[in-house]
Structures
1.
Amino acid sequence: MSGSPERVTIKDVAARAGVSKGAVSLAFNHKPGVSEATRERIFAVARELGWTPSATARSLSSRRVDIIGLALCRPARLLGLEPFYMDFISGIESVLAERSCSLLLRLVRDLDEEIALYKEWWRGRMIAGAILVDFREDDPRVPSLQGLGMPVVAVGHPSLTGPFPAVWTDDASAVTEAVRYLAALGHRRIARVGGPADLGHSVIRARAFADTVRDLGLEEAPQVGTGFDEKEGARATRTLLLGADRPTAIVYDNDIMAVAGAGVAAEMGLTVPDDLSLVAWDDSQLCRITHPTLSAMSHDVHHFGAEVARVLFDVVAGMHTGGHQVPTPSLIPRGSTAPAPGAGPS
Amino acid sequence: MSGSPERVTIKDVAARAGVSKGAVSLAFNHKPGVSEATRERIFAVARELGWTPSATARSLSSRRVDIIGLALCRPARLLGLEPFYMDFISGIESVLAERSCSLLLRLVRDLDEEIALYKEWWRGRMIAGAILVDFREDDPRVPSLQGLGMPVVAVGHPSLTGPFPAVWTDDASAVTEAVRYLAALGHRRIARVGGPADLGHSVIRARAFADTVRDLGLEEAPQVGTGFDEKEGARATRTLLLGADRPTAIVYDNDIMAVAGAGVAAEMGLTVPDDLSLVAWDDSQLCRITHPTLSAMSHDVHHFGAEVARVLFDVVAGMHTGGHQVPTPSLIPRGSTAPAPGAGPS
């Protein structure tokens, strides 16, 4: 354990890092003027010495530079159940903690509340910048917040996020890979259980799914929109499996719905993967402990969150930053996918 | 979707709730003077009308009344993997969202940093109160923060939390129940994989475990402290199973370690539950999707977090509040526990 952080001063940090006190201040205030390498060295030294900028070193009348805002329009329960957002937040926090910054987290009911909240936070000088997530098509946050001058990173495809610097994954390519993989296993009726139909990334995935099904000459199969939770994932799966043309494979938009879908298959006497193949999305630890294990479109969500935070600090520091694509989810085949019933392996 | 929250005024909320504007203000500022029932009615109406207190309605020079602080001395990665804190935070957020409040979340490296941070947040008028977690024995936060006048809820047993109002679960009784259950199944060598040895609740569980083992005349069996993550849970399980006196049952301090332990058992050719019984703690969805499913000491962690937030609002409002115990985790027997090898059911 390091000594008391109150004994170490900014002078000590500057001396150890071989820079001026001003450079330490610039680094911690996320202002331009120090290179990324120097900034990282300063953070490393501060961490080693246990030093953090104190209230007295910051003018309380000016804007907070050590707080980032994140509003989520999601039910509280889902936040604790769906691994995506907590893993994403853990990635954000990993970068914030290095820089002695905090996350101001709020659950909102709708985008009107979110817009009002960001205006309040920004005008109240509460936050240095904001992370916007879950973009809709024609998202009202774009016109409402772009004139504020608030540093923003938008988590979503650049076609959705207006002028804000975007960080995104290529959902369309990932969906295409999932469908092609199942088609190669001989599946002809592939359904999809998606997220809320008004989310931009749901729309992108739905389009890519329909396009790939058509391109491959597969049977047209239903896509069902849900609220991402286990119950809706189970209900959607039950509906699909009770339909006249039962699919032989289902692609899910997250992992808890795929886990629930596997449960429904068992309850209906279907064996996964012999009778039904399942592909999950996001690939948390859940996918590795089910029986059978779940094939998934896998990406490093913690790293995704960390990248979002890093890009936001660049934006706050006034560094010119364009969009930034993180790695595309890629298929990890596990025990829940197999050749379609009656089809040999391709 | 409700209309724009900027069109609805505090007057509308007061009229609809049948109270004065002042009462609405008191409710949202978490001040005494309105009953809990009235407060809840005001929140319900505000929610219905889509109204939230705006920046202009709050004096920016005064203390923020709509932000609660939470510092966690945990690795960022663990926050995304261990279901406990996600579910706990989702519970806190469920209550905060109802009251249009936000959570200021920070990961800290040690308690010195945490103490300095809370002093800064409180003196900087950033937060209305704080949630302190992961108490140690002789926790330095008690002497350092008790003189601040900051409203605090301490999540931990009252023997650890000094003068702060505490919200806690009875860990000792829960450990005793777990050991008694396994002993009733004929197990004589029961080991425990615990959390970090310096955490107060680890100490309480370790003592209760040792006491129960002695009271029941069982063989003295090892308890191993870990950092709560999967790797350490796996390593501890491997060490226990390679020892001369292999235990026939293991109690874990969370669920991801129990899941990892089940994996280690399989890797060593042991069948759960025939050769080895496992009991998890906290009982997230993980325990229900493993094969076999995991018996667990189960409690509603989301509700625990919500209770903590509610008690904190009472403290902020100046309402006298003593300690508050939430329900004790209770055993949910599932597929990972069975009579000890060679023992009949008791």
2.
Amino acid sequence: MDSAELQISIHHRFGQVKFLETALTHSSFANEQDGFDDNERLEFLGDAVLELCISEEGFRRFPSAAEGQLTRIRSQLVKERSLAAIARSLKLDRYIRLGRGEELQGGRERDALLADAFEAVMGAVFLDGGFEAAKGSILAIFEDLWPLETMLPEAKDYKSRLQEVAQERFRDRPIYVLAGTSGPEHEKIFKVDVTLPEGEVFRGTSTSVKRAEQESAKIALDYLCDE
Amino acid sequence: MDSAELQISIHHRFGQVKFLETALTHSSFANEQDGFDDNERLEFLGDAVLELCISEEGFRRFPSAAEGQLTRIRSQLVKERSLAAIARSLKLDRYIRLGRGEELQGGRERDALLADAFEAVMGAVFLDGGFEAAKGSILAIFEDLWPLETMLPEAKDYKSRLQEVAQERFRDRPIYVLAGTSGPEHEKIFKVDVTLPEGEVFRGTSTSVKRAEQESAKIALDYLCDE
């Protein structure tokens, strides 16, 4: 396999080209031929390498983004369709070793197969050159794919976000009720219950009604987004 | 906050203790007091740091484990309950800054809150000392928690694994049928369909019946494990 051009595209010159070759070996090929490892273990590793490098860069690029926003940005960047597009732009499809059955079924064009191979290649860079090498490669490849700070959704106001989510999902709005207070006058604790249109109730507890509302909205959002 | 003992337990001496303090600040505390960042962004980062360090170490410890086994081992190690237990053994609960409302509701004992704080602390180590520092800390903390190689389920034989999964889930076994062949005699391709007890059919294609059976079993396993 002559991978010189590919090594230039991914911004990493391999010390041990064997890692790259394994990253480009689909299981259907390894199953047909003796003596080849497939790329599935490297894909496992590369998935985590990518996740950390993109997380760290998002963390640095968007210092005022909340955790939920960072998670959404990362999901956009590392979803299968995005990775498959990157794989195509790197012409990975030309290098992948496929079994004949998989080839006949059009495997070389499949998003899942291409995304997996890209992850495996990043795993190979990590094994070959360590974390900093993988980070350099990944940041260069993703350089033009980051959203602009100005396109980020508003941070941190959970009540507004819950309002939007509820409108979108239920065509109705959440209702907040002060459920009680406790503690002495100078350090009173407020409990607010928010009820979603379908009847679920979530309680926020804090040192003001406003903060308790935000807390309850946050818990409700976590619930809705985990479903 | 005097965190000297904690820094010893996590095997990292902080250059910038501010990172550690933020990692130990729950959002309920930051919401009540001005001038404190909460630990949610660090938790986002730490989750990915942990994932990569555990993935890499699993990859190295179990050179013959298949990707699916590595995934299962990692899930066991980084699931909420495991991380909460680690947080308790590091006495993180004593250091976490909680809001009063959360405190009254027993937040300091909650698995989710403790696991998040542990992830945030690992994110802080990564920011403070870089990847190698975080890896050192994580490997030391997890040292005694890895399974033994001999306890790993058998690698790679997809037919046997599908058999087990089908017995367990459906109390019945999958059925393999040779669905056809194609190609010239000297490079014939075999298609095998495996039918699960509930009727789903998955096709494997390869250069021998045996390999095509393995392929079909693998696809069926992927399907069952993704549900």
3.
Amino acid sequence: MPQPLKRYFPILQWAKTYDRQILGADLMAAVIVTIMLIPQSLAYALLAGLPPEVGLYASILPLVAYAIFGTSRVLAVGPVAVVSLMTAAALGNLALQGTTEYLIAAITLAFMSGVMLTLMGLLRLGFLANFLSHPVIAGFITASGILIATSQLKHILGITAHGHTLPELLTSLMAHLPETNLYTVTLGATALAFLFWTRKGLKPFLLKLGVTPRLADVITKAGPVAAVAATTLSAYTFDLAEKGVAIVGTVPTGLPPLSAPSFSPDLWSQLFLAALLISIIGFVESVSVAQTLAAKRRQRIDPDQELIGLGTSNIASAISGGYPVTGGFARSVVNFDAGAQTPAAGAFTAIGIAGAALFLTPLLFFLPKATLAATIIVAVLSLVDLSILRHAWGYSRVDFAAVATTIALTLGLGVEVGVSAGVILSIALHLYKTSRPHVAEVGLVPGTQHFRNILRHKVKTAPHLVTLRIDESLYFANARFLEDYVYDRVVCDQPITDVVLMASAVNEIDMSALESLEAINSRLKELNIRLHFSEVKGPVMDRLKRSHFLDDLNGEIFLAQYDAWTKLSNSDTSQAA
Amino acid sequence: MPQPLKRYFPILQWAKTYDRQILGADLMAAVIVTIMLIPQSLAYALLAGLPPEVGLYASILPLVAYAIFGTSRVLAVGPVAVVSLMTAAALGNLALQGTTEYLIAAITLAFMSGVMLTLMGLLRLGFLANFLSHPVIAGFITASGILIATSQLKHILGITAHGHTLPELLTSLMAHLPETNLYTVTLGATALAFLFWTRKGLKPFLLKLGVTPRLADVITKAGPVAAVAATTLSAYTFDLAEKGVAIVGTVPTGLPPLSAPSFSPDLWSQLFLAALLISIIGFVESVSVAQTLAAKRRQRIDPDQELIGLGTSNIASAISGGYPVTGGFARSVVNFDAGAQTPAAGAFTAIGIAGAALFLTPLLFFLPKATLAATIIVAVLSLVDLSILRHAWGYSRVDFAAVATTIALTLGLGVEVGVSAGVILSIALHLYKTSRPHVAEVGLVPGTQHFRNILRHKVKTAPHLVTLRIDESLYFANARFLEDYVYDRVVCDQPITDVVLMASAVNEIDMSALESLEAINSRLKELNIRLHFSEVKGPVMDRLKRSHFLDDLNGEIFLAQYDAWTKLSNSDTSQAA
């Protein structure tokens, strides 16, 4: 089989060893994920401001596309909370919820995100995701969880409220609080309490009753389905819709319709940034789940091919009436725990959801929206982890600043501003740190050939010899800093005849830094001080050889710092004697 | 004297030792700089699209302000070519040249730039200038020189032409070429030829005639003044204005008027980016001249105080009818060579220019604009140095990309786009490089305690022990790369029991990287491989101690790589025996 075919169609790798045993495992996992996905897909569509059937549509074709193009064996693709929130934020300014324009914009967003992800995959730009640092992602997910949970409170209370930021949401909720519907809030609070209990208390309870752990797991996962069934039944029995409880209403029956995105340049330019952020956030979330789960089974995933897998999933979503999708954390873990062996499990899940779209939608008529809101709140509160603030504070102020800013701006100004600011701040703080590098004056650790900071260790030094270890690559941002540092160090001390720059931590010297080194060399020459280097790395030395710097150098290059010490400190001892 | 007073008013440091001898030197330098500055200030005002007297105004109060607040002893502040070009580019879209609005916008630009520079100085943000890498600056200056020289060709040809980019300028020049005025082109070409000759050929000629080098220098510097005098005289004698030669016309006589910037929020937001770029480019140009000249006399300049010096100069320019100024390269070198000892030389120059504004302006009526254009062209062509492209190509492709992009975009899309793109590209390329760090597998250089790359040196290794030297700080952009690298290295080789990460080049481990190290540690643990570290630096170790990482670490921390080798390779030998 030709290599490119294998690379771009990972299905060809696992399909040839597919057997009855793997089929059994995949089918079992698919059943459990389907049970979990039906209420989730309806709820996340609601969160995105879309009709509930759109959530089902986004859980069919995209899963098939990922089964063909994805490299993770267990990633469960579909609607997820954070991306649904970002979709709502992106579309909220463009069109009113419930209009055709809103739906078309959602489809277009999925298509744009799909094209972007696929292109990034083909161009092998997977590394770009690395510029979202862990603290920024952690802060963003936490803040998104808080925003999502708050945004769903209106459904629990049975009131209307709007807003894409925490202050907006809270103000709106407070203003409409007097309109709270008692039937809705009773039903919503009961559903919430039940779901929290199934998540925390049900499994220990079942185990105590003697149920096998495996079965207890499946029953626990079915909690949301039970809540959906029970509340739908009560809404039907007690005619709660008449009493002001919002219900889902008519959900069209049938397979996803064929759909097409808009190609309006106006719409594309309005959605561009949102599509880019959704693509990157979705990819980062998905790839880290996939990597974590792959490592547990000693499998590998290919980030660039993952981009293609998620990209084609989103394009598949766009042509089948769906909205942006990605790999979900909770769902993938369930899929993994349930024993899914190949992406075929995802395709079987798609068949399950298609069955639901064909046969179950009439049953959803009386489903209260408060129940869906309760499933969302319970799901997203597990994402909220403010301890990241404490950890970051303890480890580094810079990381703390990035997390705190991301959380504050996401809550205060919305998801797009929050995550953009987090990325920019991470990069800016990193550049700031490297622009003022740590420089240590080092001496010989007695009895070794090892050199350490004179301020931290008891080391030998020679009065006329200064050895500076530069703890940073030399590039434009810190070139001038070094110039000043060396100059300051040598002018304040009289008997210095030799300066050694220990370059063991210098991984790069760019042209700006080279000019600074030339300036240092010529200044020291005027002061009758020789400039030496030690432990210059191979790649850096290669580059220096291509310039004139080594010809003009007023000193030597030593392979090891110990060689420099032996030669330069000895000559001193003899001078001193 | 209180320290802050001394810091913010460098004049207090040099004024107390001022004596008659220094006065003599400063006066001599001031005379030479004044002679050079009169035609330059008129010409650069023309380049900025402003009336000629504005150039004179910008050469009076700003020099006095710099003498009080600046730290360089020899920097000559005033209108310079690149900043004049940037001023023209910024104002060209706002108002028509010659209108009051245009002049007020120029004054406002100087004021905004002055406020920005002063604030940056007070906040000690001088390091920000470091993010303009040398190649970007070199490329920008070269491209600006080409743009400026091209923009002045219209005055030499006596035609009208417009544009802020090379294609615009060339198209416009070609379109109007048939309107060339023969008198103008004759006069302009003669002036050009004469000025080139005074720059290159006059000094050797005078020396051959037996003139002292000192006098030859002064005569050479007076070349532009001679050209101005001769062409003004011919314009007057032959009534060239009647024949279509553009002349300067009435220049108001008198000292600079008191002026005030506009405080319209609209204008401020339109000029914001331009003011910021002018401030940064002006500062970088100025501070590098100042540093170079200070080093020659073993003096120091303080970049943060320089920001205040240039900031107050620009504010002084704004309140006295001027436009943005900065320290000029050629003029400062002349000031230095002429023997200026203190910034008082600048103040004396200001008096000279004030004298010119009071008494000489009537003589400028017949001065042909072509002469001024010729002085500009000769001055800026010395800035054009395309050899930077060749040097950068030879040294590093990354630096080359930054230079080439800056030059291409400055010429093709204008100064603001060019320099912004250069800065962004420098940073992006730097991040890209650090996101894929160099990792070397190292072994012991026999007979030493030194470890080098196994691919470049003959070194000793042990089969069960892998030592990886990571040549980069570990941070969010490369955290995942390391995870993959270590994993790939250990799964392909069977007998590995120990991995040592040699951290001599790791200057930082941020939270993202810490999480990656934790992931590496737990994965290796599952594979029964121990993970060790060696040569971890003090600041990095301090931070690791604040996390749980060291408690969970499945191996040891060695002070020196040689200690790790001694312990881990010996245990192998005994195993092998």
4.
Amino acid sequence: MSGVGASARAASAEIARSDTATKNRALLATAEAIQAMQSELSEANQRDLVAGREKGLSDAMLDRLTLTPERIQGMVEGLQQVASLPDPVGSISEMDYRPSGIQLGKMRVPLGVIGIIYESRPNVTIEAASLCLKSGNAVILRGGSEAIHSNNALAGCIQQGLEVAGLPQAVVQVVDTTDREAVGYLISMPEYVDVIVPRGGKGLIERISQDARVPVIKHLDGVCHVYIDAEADPKKALAIAENAKTRRYGVCNAMETLLVDSLVADVLLPSLQSIYDRHGVELRGCPKTQALIDCQPATEEDWSTEYLAPILSVKVVDGLDDAIQHINRYGSHHTDSIVTENYTRGRRFLREVDSASVMINASTAFADGFEYGLGAEIGISTDKIHARGPVGLVGLTSQKYVVFGDGEIREP
Amino acid sequence: MSGVGASARAASAEIARSDTATKNRALLATAEAIQAMQSELSEANQRDLVAGREKGLSDAMLDRLTLTPERIQGMVEGLQQVASLPDPVGSISEMDYRPSGIQLGKMRVPLGVIGIIYESRPNVTIEAASLCLKSGNAVILRGGSEAIHSNNALAGCIQQGLEVAGLPQAVVQVVDTTDREAVGYLISMPEYVDVIVPRGGKGLIERISQDARVPVIKHLDGVCHVYIDAEADPKKALAIAENAKTRRYGVCNAMETLLVDSLVADVLLPSLQSIYDRHGVELRGCPKTQALIDCQPATEEDWSTEYLAPILSVKVVDGLDDAIQHINRYGSHHTDSIVTENYTRGRRFLREVDSASVMINASTAFADGFEYGLGAEIGISTDKIHARGPVGLVGLTSQKYVVFGDGEIREP
């Protein structure tokens, strides 16, 4: 692994200084290679699927592992889309003169070498590689062993793309998954790896965060809330509460707990119940909720559970302070929304809720790299330092100071 | 320690939502308390100095430990200055409409709880506490055991300041240094501490980075370079090479290695030598340097050594690529400067040197929070993620996404 690390470090200097056209050429040539190699990709994927069935993988895992023609086309379009995004690298801002005479600003620069650790979905190979490459970083990819043939075939397409653009092969490296200790090395080589992005289940991410000796951009849970304030517009409240829960159940920006102000709970909860009944969403309520509508009781554990399923916990709260306290205590600092027409309470919610995305009168479903205009995202960070929320190309860079002078020296 | 952490976490919510006036009141009241308690502070400091002499601390350590009237006045002025700085918290930027109708922007928010681990200088107590408080963070301070009486006396002043402003005492906590395991706990409580800033010698910082389970904003070395290009203006080159080395020797932004292009080495090195002779700076040169001027030979180790002393290593390089390679290999990614009138080489140096501050025609001595207009700094980061270079108030915050909507829901 230290050989992989050293090659990545060397390649990172070259990709960091590559111009936008060269990086785009590599991305588009990779897309062409994928289109040309569709049958080889399907064949490699079949080998993984056969092995997976033999190993007794669940249907859900086999589904994630499968490269359908649509998913292959999705990868091609993803590469084209990343090529069309603006290049953040080298962008200079805030070049202002200081009293000493120097002109000081900031330049956006790649992070260096990024390690991505992920599980069964082979399309992550292309998504992650394209975002890292466009943002001027070298990347080391460590996918799941069950996707090894698919990942190697995709890596072959990327290598073709790099070659067409005249970029070093080590800009994107796929780690041999038969090396069981590879992950352990990857997360403990600060001399070669600048940041780790784990993508997968909570267990994987917790394990990696625990053991890493390199900074980790991580996303653990999405326990998102909608709080319906006493002065909410009922129409907006019902639409947002429906959309945030039922648009998709298995995504991290789905609402998992609904908070309703006690002043409007008796009016709104029955309407909400009929909406959720229509979608087959199971409700688990606090005692006050249970007094107003017929539902299961919520346990203490429910308040911090990411269901990723048609289940919703519902709590009646006593005003804004109670709502904010609940969210900051039980939430996962991902995305939370208030529905209100009250200016002061909206403003307080915005400032005091400690989450990566805080919204007024909008569905939590908008918390997403595409909706935020980032083009694509490598993940949604629930960390506090560096990047919070959807991490796109800019989140894979940082800023250095640049100084233009005219021979200035500093007085004692 | 988990009690300290839990109190800090609770206090962090309160300081995060405090308005600018309240935070400034706490800072100015702390300054007043320090002025009123000057004799008590000197007395407490005397106890540390007596104990330090008994323990046989070096003169340099005793000097750092001493609170002279000037240093006490410096702390008072520092507090007043931080109070006068703009408050970064709550600042909203880039509120643009998205095609969905939502209006998306970013709000600057505190990091939460910051742990500061430092060595003998008691004035760090006030510097660190004031920056954390103003940026809306709670802070846990763990100073050196040799400064315990001074630090406790200063903590008393801060507590007075917090009380005057009606802020919770746990916004600033000073850890009892008799608890030898406190540092170990402090750096491994991600549930209570969001980021660690170690301030002190390289040994301390390396140890903490190694063991921390919390992100660390760190500054290891300052191995800074000046590269004199073939097309440098000789007057600027000599002035910058003199200033970057001789302004102060013991600071991290001092030049430690001078690189001179081989095309101008024979003309410039003799002039440089006479400048450094006048200052009593010892030169250690590569073989080509030794062929041109009389000096000691530089060893491989010299190229990566932070002397913090009147010693300079000098290398003759073959053009820009050689210079950039040397800097990225042996430097510490702190601050590096090129002296040149050549547009293309200046531009390449700016982009390709991978350091927190990269300069053209300016002395490395400018790499400093005050010169950069940050007002004050908690340290100079040589990390890649989050903040690079001098870390001021803004570096102690991050950004969350905020969304203003009008009842928007996301389509499938």
